[in-house]
Structures are given as structure tokens and as C-alpha cells.
Amino acid sequence: MPAKLWNSFTAAPHRVMFFGGALQAVAVMLWWFYELVTRFGIAGQPATWSIVPSAAHAYLMIFGLFPFFMFGFLMTVFPRWMGGGEIPPQRFVPAFSFLLLGAAGFYAGLLINTTVLAVAVTSTLAGWGAALYTLLRVLLDTDNPDKRHPTSIFIAVSLGWCSLAAYLIWLLSDSVFILRLAIQGGLWLFLLPVFASVAHRMLPFFTSSALPQYAVRRPEWPWRTILAGSAMHALLQLSNASNWLWLGDLPMAFAALYLSYAWGLHRSLRIPLLGVLHIGFAWMGLSMLLFGIQSLISFTSGNATQYWGLAPQHALTIGCFATLLIGLGTRVTLGHSGLPMQVDKPVMLMFLGIQLVAILRVLADMLPGQNGYWLYIAAAALWLVCFFPWVLRYLPVYVRPRVDGQAG
Q1: Domain 3-399 is in which class?
Q2: Domain definitions of the chain by residue range
Q3: What is the pTM of this model?
Q4: What is the pLDDT of residue 304?
Q5: In the predicted model, what is the mean pLDDT of residues 353-365?
Q6: Residue range 121-128: mean pLDDT, rounded
Q7: Is-contact 218 200, C-beta < 8 A?
Q8: Average pLDDT over residues 129-143
Q9: What φ, ψ does residue 42 adopt, rounded to 5°?
Q10: Among residues 8, 16, 210, 4, which one has the least CA distance to residue 100?
């Protein structure tokens, strides 16, 4: 890469991290789409992977996609939240490099063997650790008296690193419990607490800056209820007590839905870039309601079988996490490149398309029938249809100077 482009590319942490995340947003689903169409005999022959496809899919979505965007966002906002200085490239470029090598190596490992996979995961652990150290430096080197959200997020990202380490141990030991620990930890101790904390910190702020006469409301109890319920969900899952999940999930649903109401979901829809963030968070309340009902049905019937399968989980991961990722990613990309803070029709169609992806994937598990696999494939295909244009539009932005001539 020419020096001028490299200097622009490494001018801010969100540039390099979002670049990797954008590539992964397409790559993880291209791999999964290929796996689905070959598995169900639609095209080609089923490939032989070095690990079971479901474990690879879980890894790629939890540890291979979201962390790029998370670290890009957190390395941008941590200094602003606490009044610290900008993070220099010598801290975030090594983290990005190890993460990118780990991402590429994981696909190679799927084709070769688990040894290559283990090396790739180790590289990701190194990049994740370097990013954690960078965030910790900001956390410790500033004197801001209010560090509640940064501290909670840092703990969750640290637990994500531990969950990733558990995945590496599973690759080396083939322990089913360790794999469950990695996946459940990644979902409930890492992803959900981070998204909930970022939303609690940022959605009222974004809304107050966009809507007139908006009173900022940031009640503590719903946020703490979500964090406690998420930890409880992980512990109950690992204890094989899924029939009791409703004890934590229903309070989480109430807390999240209350926040959607308190933050003015209906008013936010007037502004598309703001509305998509509120819609994404609303999926959290809906998904936890589905989790709670699913568990309550099993509890009252005495049947350990999970009705609706993974429908609630995909309502959370696609409906909530992916929508928030797109909304925050687009907002940061526009705001830190000097582009207008508004989205046009193609981007709005992409936002709406991801909502349809979530609905299709939820229905694939909720609707009876032998041909449900078409819904799986349709959801994966639509994800690609949505993300390809987004990547093509914004990937060049990360290697070009800001259009307004400012630094960053």
C-alpha cells in the first residue's frame, strides 16, 4: 500500500478495524452460504472441514465478526468518554494485524487441519489482548469520575477473551463442555453486555442530539438488570438448567422493552440513522421475551426439548447485534470521514433487509415443515445481498483522507 494511503488507513482505529470487520461481514456469510447449499444438495458436493460446521459458524459470528467493529468503536469512544488523548497507531495497528491474520488463518485451518486453526485462534487472542491492553491504558490513565460504562465494557471484552481462550482449549482437547463454555461465554458474558452497555451510554445521547425537546433518560436499574440476567443466563445454560432461564430472561425482556419506551422508540423513527439504532435495541427486548417464553414452555411442560430451536438466539444475534453493528458502524464511518450524517435509499434498504434476514432466520426454526432449510439459505443469501453494497460503498472510505480535510 502506498505511504499516503497507509497514513490515511492508519489515521484512526475505526479505519483499520472497520476495514477488517467489513471484509468479515461478507466472508463469514459466504462461507456459511457455501456450507448450506452444499449440505442440502443444492449445488456441488459437501465439503470436508477440520471441525464441525456449527462450531465454525459460532466462532466466526461471535469471535470473527463483531470484535473488529467493537474494537474500532471502543478505541474511538473510550478517549472521548473519559477525556483522554487519541490512541496512537502503534497501539492499534498491531492489534488489527494479529486479528486479521487470525481471521484469514481460520478459513485456512477449516480446509487444512485443527493445528492451523489453533494457530489462527492464537493470533486472534494476541490481537484481542493487544486491544484490551490499549483500552486498559485509556481506562487507567484518565481521571474521569464516571467510568461505569467503560469499566463494564472492559470486563465484558475481557470475558470475551477468556471465552476465545476456551475455544482454543476445545480445539486442543475436544471437550464438549469447553466448547459450550466458549459459545455461551461469548454470547452472554461478552456480546450482550457490550451491546447493552454501549446502547445505554450512547442511545440517549444520539437521540438528544437529533430530536428537539428530548429529555435524556438513562435509568440504572434496567441496565443492571440486563447485565445480571445475561450472566445468569450463561450460568444456567452451562448448568444444563435451561428450563429455568425464564427467571432471568423475562426480567431482561421487561428491562430492555422499558428502555425502548423510555428512549422514545416511536419518535426516533422520524430520523432513519437514529431509528435503526432504536430498532436494533428493540430486538433485544423481543429476543429475551422469546427466550423467556421458550424456557417457560419447557418448564411448565416438564419437557427438556427447546421449542423454537435457535429462533430466540438469532433474534438476538441478527436482529439486535447485527442491526446495532450496522447502525453504529455507519454512523461512525460517516461522522469520522467528514461525510453528511444521513443515509440514502440504498442504505435504508440494506437496513430493512437485515430486519428481513432476522425474521427469516427466526421463522426457519419456528415454522414446522420439512423444507425449512430454504429459509436458512434465503436468510444467508439476503445477508450477502445487504452487506455487499455496504462494503463496496464504505470500504474505500477507510483508506481515503477525510473529505473535510480534518485529521482522523
Answers
A1: mainly alpha
A2: 3-399
A3: 0.95
A4: 62
A5: 95
A6: 98
A7: yes
A8: 93
A9: -80, -35
A10: 16
